[in-house]
Amino acid sequence: MTTPAPGRRRLFVKTWGCQMNVYDSGRMADVLAPLGYVPVETPEGADMVILNTCHIREKASEKLFSELGRLRALKQAKEQGGERMVLAVAGCVAQAEGSEITARAPYVDIVLGPQSYHRLPEMVARASRAAGAVIETDFPAEQKFDHLPEAAAPQGTIAFLTIQEGCDKFCSFCVVPYTRGAEYSRPAAAVLAEARRLVAQGAREIALLGQNVNAWHGVAPPGAPTFESPDGRAWGLGRLLREMAGIEGLARLRYTTSHPRDFMSPGDDDLIAAHGEIPALMPFLHLPVQSGSDRMLRAMNRGHTAADYLRIADRLRAARPDLALSSDFIAGHPGETEADHQATLDLIRQIGFAQAFSFKYSARPGTPAAGAPLQVAESDKDRRLQEIQALLRDQQDAFNRSRLGLSCDVLFTGPGRHPGQVAGRSPWLQPVHAEGPASLAGQVLPCRVTAIHPNSLSVRVLARDEPVAPPAGPPGDPQQEKEAA
Ligand code: 5AD
Ligand code: SF4
Q: Could you give the CA distance from residue 319 to residue 181 in angstroms, rounded to a whole number?
């Protein structure tokens, strides 16, 4: 971020929620750049403020309205000085609660849903003429991607690239199908072109993003052979990853977030195989399971059982033995009994997660679970969440400890927190730091893990002729963890 030159306009974007929102915020800044908007780090004095919201769990609208209250004062101060601040609310809360926003905060100029970002310049122009708010909450994702500018601001060593949006799965608890719309996959050629641009701008690692990223089935590039799709027109994600791995200069690939169901049909075998065949595909996968109880998985409309999940984990680890898993869990979905909760703890013990997120169920208006009978008492939700988190924390610690003394490649990304340190990421997405110059940023170097901290690892860059330690065994292997501890 920079201080704008005279005549330039200041754009402040605040982002809540997932990586897809972070990516969207970047693209909104890209569409506004030709209008002279330059990103700044604080809202004070900004000519435009965008709040990019997330609706997935509760308190989203309270957070938004308290932020809007603060911004209203800044907007008024700017107007008293004879200037204008355009205030926009974007993202999933805008999509779900557009009319409430304009009613409760009439000083908001623009309300736009996640599929309308390409129309921002036109909306800014309309807002400067309009008396009331300009609202856009249409759905078609194709248009957005077709109309966003090609030239994006560089993202750095690790870059994000949205390849899929929306969701058709309708889990009982989730607002995403309502706020992000139906599943849409970007064509392979557009994805590959964007990936090449990101690498040309200095990216060494690309994380492909999508709400159901492993459901991606993009139209094949013109003239390219297709392998996976019954209609012969689409590629699957395995094929895309193989193609991306061939981009010169790109060292690492990841994809997130996946759904177990999209690993279950025979057509998905290629993606599982890709984990064993593409060294650049990092051995870490975020695969939410939500619950370990088949009864709850059915109530959640997940379309898979606990045994399906265990089978997928086994197959992925057979393809890539050092693969580590991460997941999401919900404690206290309506109807969840103590036995269901114990089944979740059992599944966690059986898998051995390297990391995970867990949440207390929160009723989202308009979703089937919100109106379901047998809502779980708040105190039970709290206790179950604590039990899940304690177990997951132990597993994360054990996983981190199991890396001690091992060597692994590290992608360095920039200066560390302390002088003389350089920061980076392990293959398992752990933050690492080493003694060394920040000029190592952009390099992938073999390192030895020398110390484990609660949220990071210390590593030492191996000398050129130093032997590397044997590669890590399967994570979550209790025997290995005992030996490492
Ligand atoms: N309550 C609690 N957690 C939720 N998630 C989604 N909706 C809800 C809800 N209503 C969690 C799921 C999902 C993650 C992104 O957020 O675990 O995987
Ligand atoms: Fe939400 Fe389920 Fe779709 Fe994930 S798969 S985005 S949890 S509805």
A: 33
Q: Which residues make Cβ contacts (< 8 Å) with residue 241, sequence separation at least 6?
A: 208, 253, 255, 271, 274, 278, 281
Question: 407-469 belongs to which homologous superfamily?
Answer: Nucleic acid-binding proteins (2.40.50.140)
Cα–Cα distance measured from residue 29 to residue 5, given in angstroms and rounded to the nearest whole number: 16
> Which class is domain 144-400?
alpha beta
CATH superfamily assigned to domain 9-140: Methylthiotransferase, N-terminal domain (3.40.50.12160)
CA distance from start to end of the chain:
43
Whose atoms come closest to the Cα of 331: which ligand?
A: 1
Answer yes or no: is the C-beta of 176 below 6 A from any ligand 2 atom.
yes
- Give domain limits for the chain: 9-140, 144-400, 407-469
Q: How far apart are CA 332 and CA 380, in angstroms?
A: 7
**Which ligand has the nearest atom to the CA of 179?**
2
- Percentage of the chain with pLDDT > 90? 71
Query: Ligand 2 centre and the CA of 173: distance in Å?
Result: 8
Site to substitute for ligand 2 among 18, 21, 171, most atoms within 8 A of C-beta:
171
Reported as a single tens digit per residue, the pLDDT across 125-158 is 888 776 667 777 776 666 677 777 776 777 789 9
Cis peptide before 257 (omega within 30 of 0): yes
DSSP annotation string for 26-90: HHHHHHHGGGTEEE-SSSTT-SEEEEEE--SSTTHHHHHHHHHHHHHHHHHHHHHTT---EEEEE
Residue of the CA atom closest to atom 14 of ligand 1: 328
How would you classify the pairing of strands 110-112 and 86-91? parallel
- 413 three-state secondary structure: strand
Question: Which amino acid is present at 66?
Answer: S
Q: Which region holds residue 50: left if phi is over 0, alpha if psi is between -120 and 50, else beta?
A: beta
pLDDT at 471: 53
Q: What local confidence, expressed as pLDDT, does residue 66 receive?
A: 93
